[in-house]
Amino acid sequence: MNTVLKILAVVLLFYLHIGGMLFEVPRLNIVNESIRGTYFHVPMWFGMMILFGFSLYHAIAYLVKPSPLTDHKSVEFAHVGLAFGILGLLTGMLWANYTWGTPWHGDPKQNGAAISVLVYLAYFVLRGSLENEEQRARLAAVYNIFAFAAMVPLLFIIPRMTSSMHPGNGGNPGFNMYDLDSRMRLVFYPAVIGWALVGYWIAKLRIRVRSIEEQINALEDDKIFNDLQNDKV
Amino acid sequence: MIIASIIELLKKELTLELRRKSVIAGIGLFLFSLIFICYLTFSLRRNSISEATWSALFWLTILFAVINSVAKSFIGEKKGTVIYYYSIASPQAIILSKIIYNTLLCLVLSLMGYLLFSIFIHNPIQDKPLFIVTLILASGGFAAALSLISGIASKANNSNILMAVLSFPVILAVLLMAISITKNALDGIDRAASYDELINLMAINCILTALAYLLFPYIWRS
After folding, report:
1. pTM for this one?
2. Distance from CA of residue B101 to its chain's centroid?
3. How many CB atoms are closer than 10 A to CB A122?
4. What are the backbone angles phi and psi of residue A25, rounded to the nearest 5°?
5. Nearest-Cα residue of chain A relative to residue B141
6. Low-confidence ranges of chain B (pLDDT < 70)
7. Chain A residue numbers touching B95 (CB-CB < 8 A)
8. Can you give the residue range of the structural domain that contains A143?
9. Which residues of chain B make contact with A154, given a CB cutoff of 8 A?
């Protein structure tokens, strides 16, 4: 990853933490100061969707032109995306506890998010239960594409059809993405970019680690093979 | 060409199914036992469960029956049979014939389930035609998703557990739509209120079928 982007990610997150905690925010009933959660909770979902999107892209790329590296990319983006999804659920539960009264409110978006986390957990179970590497990569790519398509209605269509307590869904009042205070935009958009960059960075590092591990394994296999050959001679 | 081979494969599926009567009897008995357990555990006297519970029980029963019966579409196949199919038909023809056949199977299962539910528990559905349409559409969605996942799961070792784990999140969207239409059908409210959900269910079916059609060749190749 480009050094400029890394520096940008760090600077943006510093700005987010300082600005997110100190800048003025609009006063709203019930939500009050917890509106600052927008800077930490919402970017998790943006980050998750971006990372799952990359994972999907590499899954398609694998089916078009199979190579171990593409498979590693697909897995690691899914890994980091899953971490973002779990963090999103946890921050959401924390926030819901103070504004809606209970951590798990049965909100359609909350349920949809939990299901999408389940989808990717199932994806890793599938990978774990296949032994042949090439077959594992191919079937996992197929399931990745299929599951992503099945997840879209859960996250983007059903919550908009039923009443939801999330802003912008089911026409419920309260603060809305579209009347976000202009002061909040100043922190919110950098926050989204910052978290997405950090997710991308982590995924890139993990891909490198995995590729190097593979190379080490291959070298060790060669060495054992050569030792055996020499012993025989 | 592809249509001819789909028809041939469908004929083969149906003949095989009718020849092995024990399999059909097994699925039927499974459904019957599930519903009888619901009857015994919930309603000692008739009409003792609410409409919401009825709908939840109905869809749970159908879900389990359908997953168990569609799972065998690839999981049970012998290795030799698979190689034989590979040599005579294109993967697209195979997946489409499986989807059509499984749609019929799911539809028969859910209609049977509905009949048994109305005999043993009761039949609170007010808008019956709407409910039947829901059953048809949901069967299509289940069949499309489960046929592909059965193909994936059949390659792994612990395929039966994997089948359940992989399919639940994928068919949940179909199930949620079906349940919300069922709610409308239960209350017998105006049909215009369900059009959104019906169209949505149809769209989900189209996406799932199209993806199964596109992705199946990659599973088939190994």
Report:
1. 0.84
2. 10
3. 21
4. -125, 155
5. A150
6. 43-47, 222
7. none
8. 3-232
9. 172-173, 176
- Is residue A119 less than 8 Å (CB to CB) from chain B? yes
C-alpha to C-alpha distance for A147 and A152, rounded to whole angstroms: 9
Q: What is the DSSP letter of A181?
A: -
- B67/A contact by beta carbon, under 8 A: no
User: From CA A208, how far away is CA B219, in angstroms rounded?
Assistant: 28
Q: How far does CA A25 lie from the centroid of its chain?
A: 27
* The total number of structural domains that make up chain A: 1
Q: How many residues does chain A have?
A: 233
Model pLDDT, residue A74: 92
| pLDDT tens column, B106-123 | 999 999 999 988 888 878
> Span A27-36, mean pLDDT?
71
CA atoms of A215 and A221, how far apart (whole Å)? 10
Residue B184, C-beta contacts closer than 8 angstroms, at least 6 positions apart: B127, B130, B193, B194, B197
pLDDT > 90? residue A80: yes
Contact state of B170 with A115 under an 8 Å Cβ cutoff: no
Query: Chain A partners of B199 at a C-beta cutoff of 8 Å?
Result: none
Q: Would residue A19 be called left, alpha or beta, if left means φ above 0 and alpha means ψ between -120 and 50 degrees?
A: alpha
Q: pLDDT digit string (tens) for B132-159?
A: 999 999 999 999 999 989 888 888 877 7
Q: Determine the pLDDT at residue A170.
A: 45
